[in-house]
TrEMBL record:
PANTHER family: ACYL-COA N-ACYLTRANSFERASE, GCN5-RELATED N-ACETYLTRANSFERASE 2, CHLOROPLASTIC
Protein name as annotated: Putative enzyme
Enzyme Commission code: 2.3.1.-
Gene3D superfamilies: 3.40.630.30
Domain annotation N-acetyltransferase: ranges: 1-151
Length: 151
């Protein structure tokens, strides 16, 4: 079941982001403070009473939002849960009146399958790069590609 995250999901989301950072290196970990501040951005997928995946829609500007922190536990991948999490975020973007969504990713095939297209980083709003400064790969070892979807 996919639903909006609740306060009692924060520790599970934090663990997901740390676990994925250690094993895949594909997402930035977030502090508890960041997660509590941005809890309303998150959707989670729950099986039983366990949070097994998450994704966030981060509003950047009046016409731009970011899909980030997409994680599904490895043993639950291949069930289209990542796709459903992204679709939940995209639906919320439309509800909010935001029609351009981007992501920074190494998983270009996954996002291309959802309709995202590669875009030059220089074309994105400068607010996009605030998180980049906290990344250990910044600036010389970044492998991420900007991908944009116009809804």
């Amino acid at each position: 079941m996919i639903r909006k995250a609740r306060i009692d999901d924060v520790k599970a989301i934090h663990s997901l982001l740390l676990l994925t950072k250690e094993h895949d290196g594909l997402v930035l970990p977030r502090s508890f403070s960041q997660l509590y501040s941005h809890l309303r951005d998150f959707f989670v997928v729950v099986e039983g009473d366990e949070v097994i995946g998450c994704c966030a829609l981060n509003i950047i500007w009046d016409n731009l939002a970011e899909i980030r922190s997409l994680v599904v536990l490895p043993e639950h991948r291949g069930k289209k849960l990542g796709r459903k999490l992204v679709e939940a975020c995209l639906s919320e973007a439309v509800t909010l009146g935001i029609y351009e969504v981007y992501t920074l990713t190494e998983q270009t095939g996954f996002f291309a399958h959802l309709g995202f297209v590669e875009e030059g980083m220089e074309k994105l709003n400068q607010k996009v790069f605030i998180d980049c400064m906290n990344c250990p790969r910044f600036p010389d070892h970044c492998n991420e590609v900007a991908m944009v979807l116009n809804l």
